[in-house]
Amino acid sequence: MDTKRRETLKSLLLAPLAAGAAASAGCAAGRQVNWTELPREYSYGRTEAERQRDRELFAESWFSEHELVTIAVLCDIILPSDHPNGGALDAGLPDFVEFIVKDRETLKLPVRGGIAWLDSYAIAEFGADFVNIDEAQRLAICDCIAWPDVEDPVLQPGIRFFSLMRDLTLTGYYTTGQGFRDLGYQGNVANVWDGVPAEVLARHGLQYEPEWLAKCVDQSRRDIIASWDDDMNLTS
Amino acid sequence: MSANEPYDAIVVGSGAGGGIATWRLAQAGLRVALVEAGPWYDPADDSQRTQFRYPWESPRRGASTRLRPFGDFNACIGGWELDGEPFTTAEGTDFMWWRARMLGGRTNHWGRISLRFGPLDFRRRDIDGLGDNWPIGYEDVKPYYDKVDKLVGVFGTNEGLPNDPDGFFLPPPKPRLHELYYIRGARRAGVPVYPARKSILTKRINNDRGVCVYCRQCDRACSLHADFSSSTVLIYPAVASGRVDVYTNTMVRKVDTGPDGSATGVSCIDRGSRQELRISGRSVVLAASACSSARILLNSISATHSAGLGNSSGHVGRYLHDSTGASRAAFLPELMDRDIYNEDGVGGMHVYTPWWLEDANLDFARGYHLEIGGGMGMPSYGFGFAANQYKEFLGERVGGYGNGLRDDVRRFYGSRLSIACRGESVPQYGNYCELDPDVVDEWGIPVLRFDYRWTEQEINQARHMQDTMEELLEASGGILLGGKPGPERQYGLTQPGEIIHEVGTTRMGDDPATSVTNRFGQLHDAGNVFVADAGTFVSQADKNPTWTIMALAWRSSDYIIDQMRQRNL
Predict the structure, then answer these.
(1) Which domains does chain B have, with CATH numbers?
(2) Testing the interface with B: which of A212, A213, A234 to mutate, by most B Cβ within 10 A?
């Protein structure tokens, strides 16, 4: 079940939007932000009502280009692509975030409002909105809002927003093939599970109780049809 | 036979009870109409399959939706809210009502936890003076539990426990790593722990169904038919007999009765075409779920049955009760930085703790059991949220960004241990559902209104659950997560209906003045109408109801077959 992900890239131009900041923010304009485009067609046992719902979500336009670029830049900071297992943009995070925010109504306001807060903060601190300040300035802001233990009341909306974006970025990444590789997840395959590996047990200083083990399935006999005697003892 | 000739039996609902009734009656040669409000379903059909899907096969990565509240890949079509089919609640009631709309009903997503009621569970009034005894005892049901074990397949172990009876079990899977920590903790705390009991085939039971391949996805329904769903285990074979007609997407409005008060069939509506439909039958078996069957009976008003069919006692809808529930989780530092290997196992827990304080002097009646959770599950929506929150317990800073988050995610993956309690509530006459005279659903059927409040018994039990969970999680080496809910939150007690074990609305009894059916699920008021879902339960025990639903449905079906042979039906 390979992902068959289309490796096309989506590109959006970083363009200054905040009118007052435009003149001083030209430095970033023209640099492109690229990410893997996620599929828009899915087939996984849906009812007609579900298919209809997803068609409507994909058709809905919620974020402006500026908001989407800001999401992309943030996701990239949270999980950069300079890693063998790829980062947020390789995993198509902006597309995922766009979809999930449309799907989960309660996310719409926090993300939109969070981006607006971030821009207002960036303009106040550095004279341009978040995507149009330079990389060092962006990271300086992130350093202020990436740690929930910071108590500065002015930063609380930003901290909430950054935590939300970190959650969405990590969940969006670890639910892709890249994320599975990064984690080393081994499951979701047909197998005959026969207990915790011996070396793992040893590392934890644990062992199966012999009486317990004696009751457990003998996997070499799993295909022999079950039969019992009248005293409820399995005999096959 | 002609299309207009009545069926021998009309079974309403295709879940655990309806599945057994359909299968058993067809096996005995009866001609059966099975009426299901939802569509045909087979998890082996790739267009309906959600098993073995990766999270990225869903644009929302398995997140819940209103149409799939337990997640995008969950098998159950239905939910807490159904479009066009509302329900209402009395003031002060927070009842939750899950309704499935599919072949096999809720058996497509349940936890497969399959526990027999024990001898004490049928006579609780004798023990604590509360509620009522069942009119039957364990010895009446035991032969049918035995049959269900052998037909359906259930893993577990014979432990000789007094109120958690032995069975014809398949062998259980070995415990996972976090379950070994729980076992060790439970031993330290002096609390018993045993292999779980679940209707999942760890061993071949026949040549028609597969054997478990340990994907942990029973909630997605098994395309190998290696777990129990009513559809896969009972209805397909019943249909293969050639004696069953399945009416899918068909909503039953009421049971029709003749001048003598006995049933002549059911009136339905085809949900696709909105055409009215009448199905004739010599008998009707209601298995639409406790509340839906009660609703159908209450809506079956006639000259003979002016308060609704089977309701001369006024007891239809009364004694509605659900299991209690509470849960807690902990972080296990010993499971940090763990080796990552495939530990999916079967769906849900491999070990559990049955009620162990039967003889203790407590400030609540009835018991509860403990279900154990944790391990290295497949990431889906929500994975990675608060990714490094456990750093708090290590004296490290929570939050941040960058590639270091990857290390945090791996470090804490699979380091959580959780316990969920499921307990017995005391049935109350004052907890009930009734028809709301002011509201109809889109099919023109009056909707149910619920009036339900927990009592001190359940609230005190929840407090005890919280203390137990803390003790066991800490004994297992865990650091408790979240706060301990206190009296302001009823100690974390779940809402009525939330555990989806609602039972009791058409309870059985020997006295027609205080019960709806007799010992065989036969209405006191109409001899050819039966209830084969959990509505007949006098009390719910702390056990999950499915195995008892099936045993009783089989018993009722044998009675129907016998009565037909004797020409009494």
Answers:
(1) 1-53+65-155+197-323+429-451+502-569 (3.50.50.60)
(2) A212
